[in-house]
Amino acid sequence: MGWLRKFFSTESMVPERLRVGELLPTEEAYRNLMRLAVPSVLEMVLMALISMADTMMVSTMGTNAIAAVGLVTQPRLIMLCFFYALNTGVTAIVARRRGEGNRDAANLTLRNAILVALVIIAGLMAITLPFSKQIIRMVGGVPGVTLEDGTTYFRIIALALPANALSMCICAAQRGVGNTKLTMYVNVISNAVNVLFNWLLINGIGPFPRWGVKGAAVATAIGLCVGLVLSVYSLFHTHRHTAFLRLSLHDKWRFDKSALMAISKVGKSALLEQLCIRGGFLIYAMIVANLGTNEYAAHIIGIQFLQLSFSFGDGVGVASTALVGQMLGKKRPDLAHMYGKIAQRFALILSIALAVVVVTCRAGLVNLFIYSDTANDQYVRELAMRVMIVVAAMQPFQTSAVVSTGALRGAGDTRYVAFSMILTVVGMRPLLSFGAVTLIGKTLELPELALIGAWCVALLDMITRMVLMLRRYNGGKWHAIKL
To answer: Signal peptide span per the entry (predicted)?
Structure first.
């Protein structure tokens, strides 16, 4: 057991050439990570579970409804990618300022990020709202099957973009200073409100109308608005005068060149990364959608559990981002390196447990989305269960890649992350998936085997991404990045 103790010891995590001073004792270091990681993991997992509950409620209307809502996922994420990029910069910079103890600069960064978000919101809504139907048709919407419901869902989600984006921005800043408990409360409450109104508006409970897919979209919009109110309250509440982040209407709400340049330094590479990721995932989803509605419904079910498992790694990655940024702000790159390694160890344990659960419980998990009176229910069920095997195989590679990526983002090394994502998500995944779907699905007319082939391509993508991220992280070049 000595090798296991050494593997988890902080002394084995940082090479001598990278050390600046004494490392923290192993127990203290893990305790510091857990303080941020546990609330963050709970937040991400509960949000993913609530999202799954959303899909399960929609599934009562059949596989066409699942596919219609699923079609909206990638266009919506493309809209949000601008804010993910912005928030990457916000979290990294606020974490640095937290480490430096520079409260005024952190709040200036947040104010400028909010102003930038408002400009982006106006531009995106002007583009997406008039062309909602064309967008859903482009990603695979079929008239009379998924196009109409998908368009309705997308339009309502687009109208709720201001609440979604601004809440994300504020929560990103709070994570940078380590307030992961606060962001957990905000997102869990807002998503719980979403589920409540799903139940009321999808099925028409009591005096509420039976709106089906439209009701699911309206419920999501209501939940997002609640999240915005809670996140804004966390900044303006008078009792929070001692908090590191606190805004006031009397602050200088205008663009600041230095703050914008700092955000841009991290955010521009993050934006390239996000655009490439979303573009690659969109193409991948469109390729899979061409296999047919039933195959795509099985794909969406698999995606639900992949997103759930991703949330575990993402939660640990958030803690890694914050701690790496804060330690670099304190001029302790060796401690930043150590915390990234600890996060990887923690994520590895989670991934093994998740893989076991997915394999052993896949039948019961898939049945949560399939109803016996649904058309082609047995075919979709069996196909989704095969997909779940690949989901289980992806766990160790996914969590390691996600956590390492989070650490590199916390250091501001977004250019390398963007390059890696372009190579894997934009290059490898779409090309190989197209080959699998065309050869197996169309030429050989085996759509079910083509779907598994497309998922195996995603597994190869994840393995490659993990190797690239770990190589960069272990090299330590990111230690010297200035923000």
So the answer is: none
